[in-house]
């Protein structure tokens, strides 16, 4: 068993570490193969089936799904109703046509999608990998779909993992395996996995038939970052299983020759498949409004049918034995009841069945145009826009609040080491500001600070080692060494080299037993000055390197003097020995060949910074890290434990065996607000108290300065553990690792117990510059009336500085700060600030005042309590901007939900990291940025962009277009349906409300289904009320979407009235024109239909803002299609409209000049009021969009002057952007603080 893992004895009366649901896994061909079938019964195979249908189930299942829509059920009801003889209005087959067409179109689309899924499933299931076969006793090629839980799988480098497997063997001597998770979460950084600790076959390939262990783990779930369980051996000892032992399906093996694992989850039970939820679905605001208006249309339909039913009953009651009626004994009341249902069938077009299909087609077209916009393409990342949500494009045009992360969203998230403070001494690294950010030097943009470099070089200078000068402080040097050791060790950076073989970390076995050993150690690293020293340990002078080492590691609580026997050094392999012989030049060249793959840019920046000081991270294994220190060469540091970073603890720790003192040392790195609280309290009377107090005070002062400069701050601390203290903690920690239930809680308690009474080493300041065009983007968004909030986990000073740099905080703004420790204090301060803001807001009306609110995480937690939510929102909504600093991911989502629900506004959340996923999913629209922190935010978002600046065009241009296009198209659908249905209704007044129609059934059905369906689609995809340049330069145009001006209830009813008027004209002008003639019913219906068609098509021409040749082709084509169909139908139809016969009617009309005169007159009279109203309104009181459309028609110079005059009138003038220095520091931004901390 390995010394880094304590195996707990199981069985007996021991406590069961995971009651509840669990999974048992044994080897399929192992010693317990007789139990295999019983244990694995019910476990899924590895074949995947993401298809929804089969050939047999497609029709019933698809129809079942489609009839979940209320509109489809409504039209199915009409079809069935038309089969009732007493209410039959049309031929039974004709009534089915609209519903059948809609169902077939959607079914065809679903079938294509499902066929694509079927082909993908077949391709995946047919992939081949090597699986152990018990009959042949060797690994054989096998399809993925045939893999089962308990199978042993052999994978080679660059091979995709077919199922979730526990790693049992790796070709890497250290038992590690590197995987790429790009197929799973989009991240290209390599992740390190490791073989289960303590396995006897770590040094030899595992034998599946000899595998007598049982795996107990949690049931299948979708948590990619958690795996809990243990492996129980035949002797009842247990080893804890963690996430680093699990290889996830769809990931790829990298930089590892081969691995062997046992399958624990297969097929749809794998974590990858559990997370495969398909496209996101959200209901848009316009869709909710649409449902309301459809209900109003239904009310209108019922009113018209009820009117017809009452009219029919009254009409029958007034007749006295009419010769044209066959007596059937039906009373007028019952006849009216039957007529009510007949009219439901006749007027069914009032409910737009094709609208839903049309909206889906239009949204697909809008998404295609958004994704095809070349302005969204980022050449550096070779990424464009991704639309992951297919049904909320119009919501992009109605956003009122934006919640943005800071790091990686507003900033580059390309960190550069800027400054540091060690032992209370600041090292400003002034030369770093001169480095070119986009072209980093060999040390990733870090130029060493001369003062710090001189102190660190004492380790490699023999003369300095032998001189005990009063100006040198050995304790400060020890702080520096531990500081660099902590940064080099406390990370998860994966080291690789594209040009050199990977250096292997050898287990240390040689102890320093004399000064001769120290001399040989330094000789290996080119320090020949020690060659003349005595090799006798007893004769070692007081100023020898041995005494220097004792002085170096003998300060306070950090380290204690160690005997030479306790010192450890690594065995140098051939690779390292060759580099040592090559001299310093060879070392430098080889160091440059190292490639660091870090999970976060902060870690990469810190590791690159240590390399600039020749403190180099060379290699990493599961239990050792190979580092190099100046003068000491390469040291193999035993890595005992890693306590990974998480958003709750906000820190990371490593437990190591110190390479020089052999002590157990804890190195911790994390947020300064957390680390400072964990520092050991100062003891009275201790001689080191004054020094420690000075270090703490100076470090805090430096941290505040870094934050004011906009730098990201981290603190570094350490702690030395006694052997007994470490043993006691190790027992508790190992038990926590083997638990399944409450494992996270126990591990958190274990970490808290370890990370206490720390000694502060120092702090770092890392630069993260703003992305390009962030100030311009924020100014444009605020000009569009959008409230911008920044939710960040950074320090308050850092957040305020970035807010100032990006223009969110202007020099004239007043800064409101809330830092409270209690609920009462928070409430009092909120009420006070509300009064301050109210006084300033009185003169501005509803416009936000010139205030910016800054609230820290602790105060935000208080403000989110039920009793304080109202005053917090009342204050925040009257501020021009809000910055929430030190906020957790949970708090981010709570803030978004609070604003969204309480204020009833449309929200957008944008971020780039895993800590932003919660707020992205809560917001109405979530936008992910594909940045440096992986792709978790992108995978959870509705839309994905590569830069924050793209948000400007996405909202102001495409969002505005999508909303106005879809809103106008929806209104147009209601308009044309109401206009046409009313023609049938007016005719009822002249046919005794009998439900008869003046046109044939085919023309009635196809009028909306074919003749007028294509133009609205083009209208909804391509119409533009203003150009992209105008919309971006005049953000005020976006505000129309805030109030849904394109689709208001008043707009809906005005459209209904317009349709009502036009239907009156289209019916009564032909009626009076042919009054007194002997034309038939169908002869009368032809000019009515034709006039209505021309009016409806030309109405769209009037409403359209863009007319191209494509619009002309579609409009003219629709009219020609109508006339061609009318002629062909009239020439060929004999019995297709039983019992009537429209044969030759339309052909005769086409030869009559009166027909054309009537159609032209009707069209002019119907459209004249609309044309006059639009002309007068646009001339007398034009809207902003009308003015913008006029600017589009001007020349470039006139357009520029017009835009500038408009901006001046609005108070914008020239864009006011804060000037930012090269290092991200704001210049000239001095906000006025209003409140003080409470």
TrEMBL record:
Domain P-type ATPase C-terminal: 938-1183
Residue numbers binding ATP: 405-407, 603, 645, 669, 712, 792-794, 886, 892, 915-916
Recorded superkingdom: Eukaryota
Residue span, P-type ATPase N-terminal domain: 40-95
Keywords: ATP-binding, Endoplasmic reticulum, Magnesium, Membrane, Metal-binding, Nucleotide-binding, Translocase, Transmembrane, Transmembrane helix
Localization, UniProt: Endomembrane system; Endoplasmic reticulum membrane; Membrane
Gene Ontology CC: one annotated term: plasma membrane
Cofactor: Mg(2+)
Topology term for the membrane: Multi-pass membrane protein
EC number: 7.6.2.1
Keyword ATP-binding: yes
Top class in the EC scheme: translocase
GO molecular function, one term: glycosylceramide flippase activity
Family per similarity comment: Belongs to the cation transport ATPase (P-type) (TC 3.A.3) family. Type IV subfamily.
Name recorded for this polypeptide: Phospholipid-transporting ATPase
Species this protein is from: Scleropages formosus
């Amino acid at each position: 068993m390995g010394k880094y893992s304590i195996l707990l004895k199981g069985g007996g009366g021991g406590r069961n570490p995971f009651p509840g649901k669990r999974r048992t896994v044994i080897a399929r061909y192992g010693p317990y193969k007789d139990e295999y079938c019983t244990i694995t019964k019910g476990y899924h195979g590895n074949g995947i089936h993401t298809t929804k249908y089969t050939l047999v189930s497609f029709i019933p299942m698809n129809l079942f799904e489609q009839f979940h829509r209320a509109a489809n059920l409504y039209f199915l009801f009409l079809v069935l109703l038309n089969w009732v003889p007493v209410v039959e209005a049309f031929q039974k087959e004709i009534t089915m046509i609209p519903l059948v067409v809609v169902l077939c179109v959607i079914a065809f689309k679903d079938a294509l999608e499902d066929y694509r899924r079927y082909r993908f499933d077949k391709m995946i299931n047919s992939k081949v990998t090597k699986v152990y076969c018990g009959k042949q006793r060797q690994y054989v090629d096998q399809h993925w779909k045939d893999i089962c839980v308990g199978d042993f799988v052999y994978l080679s480098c660059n091979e995709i993992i077919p199922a979730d497997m526990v790693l049992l063997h790796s070709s890497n001597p250290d038992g590690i395996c590197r995987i790429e998770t790009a197929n799973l979460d989009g991240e290209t950084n390599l992740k390190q996995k490791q073989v289960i600790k303590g396995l006897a076959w770590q040094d030899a390939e595992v034998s599946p038939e000899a595998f007598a262990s049982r795996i107990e783990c949690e049931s299948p779930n979708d948590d990619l970052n958690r795996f809990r369980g243990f492996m129980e051996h035949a002797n009842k000892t247990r080893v804890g299983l963690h996430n680093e032992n699990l290889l996830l399906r769809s990931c790829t093996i990298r930089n590892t020759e081969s691995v062997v694992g046992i399958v624990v989850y297969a097929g749809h039970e794998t974590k990858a498949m559990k997370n495969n939820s398909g496209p996101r679905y959200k209901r848009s605001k316009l869709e909710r409004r649409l449902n309301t208006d459809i209900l109003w249309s239904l009310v209108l339909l019922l009113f018209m049918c009820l009117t017809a039913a009452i009219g029919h009953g009254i009409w029958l009651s007034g007749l006295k034995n009419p010769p044209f009626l066959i007596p059937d004994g039906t009373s007028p009341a019952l006849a009216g009841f039957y007529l009510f249902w007949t009219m439901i069938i006749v007027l069914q077009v009032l409910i737009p069945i094709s609208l839903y299909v049309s909206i889906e087609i239009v949204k697909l077209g809008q998404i295609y145009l958004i994704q095809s916009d070349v302005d969204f393409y980022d050449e550096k990342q070779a990424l464009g826009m991704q639309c992951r949500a297919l049904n909320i494009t119009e919501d992009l045009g109605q956003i009122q609040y934006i919640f943005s992360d800071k790091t990686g969203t507003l900033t580059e998230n390309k960190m550069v080491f800027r400054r540091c403070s060690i032992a209370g001494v600041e090292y400003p690294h002034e030369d770093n500001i001169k480095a070119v950010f986009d072209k980093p030097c060999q040390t990733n943009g870090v130029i060493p600070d001369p003062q710090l470099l001189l102190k660190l070089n004492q380790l490699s200078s023999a003369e300095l080692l032998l001189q005990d000068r009063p100006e040198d402080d050995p304790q400060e040097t020890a702080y520096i060494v531990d500081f660099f050791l902590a940064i080099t060790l406390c990370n998860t950076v994966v080291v690789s080299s594209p040009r050199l073989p990977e250096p292997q970390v050898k287990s240390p076995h040689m102890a320093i037993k004399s000064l001769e050993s120290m001399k040989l150690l330094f000789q290996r690293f080119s320090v020949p000055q020690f060659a003349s020293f005595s090799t006798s340990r007893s004769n070692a002078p007081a100023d020898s390197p041995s005494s220097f080492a004792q002085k170096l590691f003998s300060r306070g609580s950090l380290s204690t003097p160690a005997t030479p026997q306790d010192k450890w050094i690594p065995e140098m392999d051939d690779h390292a020995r060759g580099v040592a012989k090559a001299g310093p030049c060879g070392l430098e060249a080889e160091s440059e060949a190292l490639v660091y793959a870090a999970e976060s840019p902060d870690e990469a920046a810190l590791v690159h910074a240590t390399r600039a000081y020749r403190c180099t991270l060379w290699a990493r294994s599961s239990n050792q890290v190979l580092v190099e220190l100046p003068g000491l060469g390469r040291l193999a540091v035993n890595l005992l434990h890693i306590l990974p970073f998480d958003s709750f603890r906000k820190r990371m720790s490593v437990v190591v065996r110190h390479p020089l003192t052999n002590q157990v040392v804890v190195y911790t790195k994390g947020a300064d607000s957390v680390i400072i609280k964990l520092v050991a309290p100062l003891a009275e009377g201790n001689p080191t108290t004054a020094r420690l107090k000075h270090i703490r005070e100076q470090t805090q002062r430096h941290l505040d300065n870094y934050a004011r400069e906009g730098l990201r701050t981290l603190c570094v601390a350490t702690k030395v553990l006694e052997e007994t203290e470490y043993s006691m903690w190790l027992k508790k920690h190992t038990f926590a690792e083997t638990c399944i239930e409450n494992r996270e809680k126990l591990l958190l308690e274990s970490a808290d117990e370890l990370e206490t009474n720390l000694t502060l080493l120092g702090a770092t300041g890392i630069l993260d510059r703003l992305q390009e065009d962030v100030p311009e983007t924020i100014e444009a968004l605020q000009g569009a009336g959008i409230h911008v909030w920044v939710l960040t986990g950074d320090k308050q000073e850092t957040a305020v500085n970035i807010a100032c740099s990006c223009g969110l905080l202007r020099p004239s703004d007043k800064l409101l700060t809330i830092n409270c420790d209690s609920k009462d204090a928070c409430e009092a301060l909120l009420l006070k600030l509300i009064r301050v803001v109210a006084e300033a807001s009185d003169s501005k009306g509803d416009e936000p005042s010139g205030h910016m609110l800054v609230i820290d995480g602790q105060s935000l937690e208080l403000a989110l309590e039920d009793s304080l939510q109202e005053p917090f929102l009342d204050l925040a909504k009257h501020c021009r901007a809000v910055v929430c600093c030190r906020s957790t991911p949970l708090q981010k989502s709570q803030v978004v939900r609070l604003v969204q629900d309480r204020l009833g506004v449309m929200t957008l959340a944008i971020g780039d990291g895993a800590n932003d996923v919660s707020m992205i999913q809560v917001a109405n629209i979530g936008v992910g940025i594909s940045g440096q922190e992986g792709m978790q935010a992108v995978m959870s978002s509705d839309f994905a962009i590569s830069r924050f600046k793209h948000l400007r065009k996405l909202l102001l241009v495409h969002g505005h277009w999508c909303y106005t296009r879809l809103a106008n198209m929806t209104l147009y659908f209601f308009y044309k349906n109401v206009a046409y249905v009313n023609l049938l209704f007016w005719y009822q007044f002249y046919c005794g409300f009998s439900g008869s129609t003046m046109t044939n059934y085919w023309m009635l059905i196809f009028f909306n289904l074919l003749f007028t369906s294509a133009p609205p689609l083009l209208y909804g995809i391509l119409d533009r009320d203003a150009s992209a340049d105008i919309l971006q330069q005049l953000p005020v145009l976006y505000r129309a979407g805030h109030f849904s001006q394109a689709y208001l209830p008043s707009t809906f009813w005005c459209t209904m009235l317009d349709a009502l008027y036009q239907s009156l004209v289209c019916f009564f002008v032909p009626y009076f024109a042919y009054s007194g003639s002997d034309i038939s019913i169908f002869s009368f219906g032809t000019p009515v239909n034709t006039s209505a068609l021309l009016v409806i098509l030309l109405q769209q021409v009037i409403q359209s803002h863009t007319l191209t040749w494509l619009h002309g082709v579609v409009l003219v084509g629709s009219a020609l299609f109508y006339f061609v169909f009318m002629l062909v139908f009239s020439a060929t139809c004999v019995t297709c409209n039983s019992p009537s016969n429209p044969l030759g009617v339309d052909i005769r009309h086409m030869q009559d000049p009166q027909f054309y005169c009537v159609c032209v007159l009707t069209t002019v009279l119907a459209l004249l009021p609309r044309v006059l109203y639009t002309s007068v309104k646009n001339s007398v009181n034009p809207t902003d969009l009308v003015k913008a459309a006029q600017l589009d028609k001007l020349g470039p110079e006139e357009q520029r002057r017009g835009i500038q005059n408009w901006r001046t009138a609005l108070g914008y003038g020239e864009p006011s952007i804060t000037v930012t220095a090269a290092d991200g520091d704001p210049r000239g931004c001095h906000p006025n603080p209003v409140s003080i901390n409470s």
